Amino acid sequence: MVKKTEVLAVIPARGGSKGIPRKNIREFAGYPLIAYSIAAGRQAEGVTRVLVSTDDREIANVALEFGAEVPFLRPPELAQDATPDLPVFEHVLRWLRDSEGYQPDLVVQLRPTSPVRPVGLVDRAVGILMDHTDADSVRGVVPAGQNPYKMWRIHPGGHMLPLLTLEEIREPYNAPRQALSPVYWQTGHIDVIRPEVIEIKKSMSGDTILPVQIDPAFTVDIDNLWDWARYEWLVQERNLPMVYPAHKARPWPEKVSLVVFDFDGVMTDNRVWVNAAGEEFVAAHRGDGMGIEQLLADGFQAVIISTESNPVVAARAEKIGVPYFHGVGDKAKVLKTYLNNESFDPSQTIYIGNDVNDTPCFSLVACAVAVADAHPVVRRQADKILKHAGGHGAVREICDILLNRYR
After folding, report:
1. pLDDT in tens, 263-278
2. Half-sphere exposure of 56 toward its Cβ, with a 13 Å CA cutoff?
3. Per-residue pLDDT tens for 10-54?
4. For 194-208, how does the pLDDT look when each residue is reduced to its tens digit (9 = 90+)?
5. Of 100 and 15, which is predicted with more confidence?
6. Reduced to 3 states, what is the DSSP secondary structure of residue 126?
7. CA angle, corner 316, sides to 311 and 265, nearest 5?
């Protein structure tokens, strides 16, 4: 029997924040700030424990409410303004070893001040370190907004000197940006470290550090109230496929027999054109039709359940050969009846939706999937979030996933 890799996620959260008082439990886009990092750890398939290290009882209670472990309160001397990460993580590992005999194989640091994490980031970073046994750690990075070869320092005499020089390029500060090597900025999203690096090398990174690259759209590091307002807007308005609190994502089921599709916002882009006669028109993606054709040919079953009573639902469903229900007020009731009448196993059924009237169906199936531009409430409750928006290849994406995973 192969021993499961023990991956401990640690969220350091002291109570004495000066820039934003009570920052770690202040509400950010509907949840306490710390809840986003707890969710990132709990929703990662490879993480086995999520622990919060704090000196503050109120933070501890909020962390417990959102599913983290808080087996101790951090000593006050390790919760000062200038306390670095290393002694905090040494304390965590020492306490767990001495009190529980527990020693993780990998340690993940999830800073509360970087709450906007892409779905799957934690598992991706853990996987990189597991695949590279010679590496000490993995650190999240984004392309740097400014190249340091075009930066300067001012000499005490008043003239400027280049911050960095290059042997292969004379005057890199005058060179085109494209001629310079790409550089990266480390973010607070994630670090994955081997415990021996912390305990023996006395380092939070070690010598061999590998990158996990992150889309710059997710670059959020909250230090002041201006950051807070700006990034809260980002979360509420940009529809990023990020990890949200209050929901533990379910894995893909072992087998999928039935795929249930919403129509508007999934098979279309949710827009509608209306002519002078009141006739409505929508746009569909031809690649979606090909995906469903391949899905059905491979033995999967599909059904469309739509709130809209527009004849276009029936026309599209009939063209792609999928049974349908339209003009449905209670989707969950129709889905439950359909599963029962057609003898489909809910544990082998997945649902793809985009709006709040889809969410009652999520608990009736094994796995709920949201398109990339789904309503924020839907993304928060979904188990998986697609990369493509509705009407722009989302259906083809889920078909390809199913064909590649279960064929």
Report:
1. 989 999 878 787 787 7
2. 18
3. 999 988 777 777 888 888 887 889 999 999 999 898 999 999 999
4. 999 999 999 999 999
5. 100
6. helix
7. 85
pLDDT value, residue 3: 72
What is the 8-class DSSP label of residue 356?
G
Number of C-beta neighbours around residue 151 at 10 A: 11
Cα angle at 178 between 174 and 182, to 5 degrees?
105
Closest CA to 383 of 288, 260, 244, 254: 244
Residue recorded with tokens 């809209």: 308
Question: What is the Cα–Cα distance from 126 to 379, expressed in whole angstroms?
Answer: 24
The token duo for 235 is: 């979360």
Residue carrying the six token digits 């359940």: 305
Contact 180, 169 (CB under 8 A): yes
Q: What does each C-alpha distance from 351 to 68, 175, 303, 332, 362 come to in angstroms?
A: 29, 52, 10, 11, 7
| Confidence category of residue 247, pLDDT binned at 50, 70, 90 | low
Give the DSSP letter string of 156-222.
Answer: TTS-EEES---SSSSSGGGS-GGGSPP-EEEEEEEEEE-HHHHHTS--SS-S-EEEEE--GGG----
Per the confidence metrics, is the pTM higher than 0.90? no
Angle between helices 33-42 and 57-65 (to 10 degrees): 50
Number of Cβ atoms within 10 Å of the Cβ of 212: 21
What secondary structure, in 3-state letters, does 207-270 show?
Answer: CCEEEEECCHHHCCCCCCHHHHHHHHHHHHHCCCCECCCCCCCCCCCCCCCEEEECCCCCCECC
Q: Which residue has the tokens 């986003």?
A: 36
- Asked if 111 contacts 12 with a C-beta cutoff of 8 angstroms, the reply is yes
Give the burial string for 254-292 (b: 16+ CB within 10 Å, else e). Answer: eebbbbbbbbbbbbbbbeeeeeeeeeeebebbebbbebb
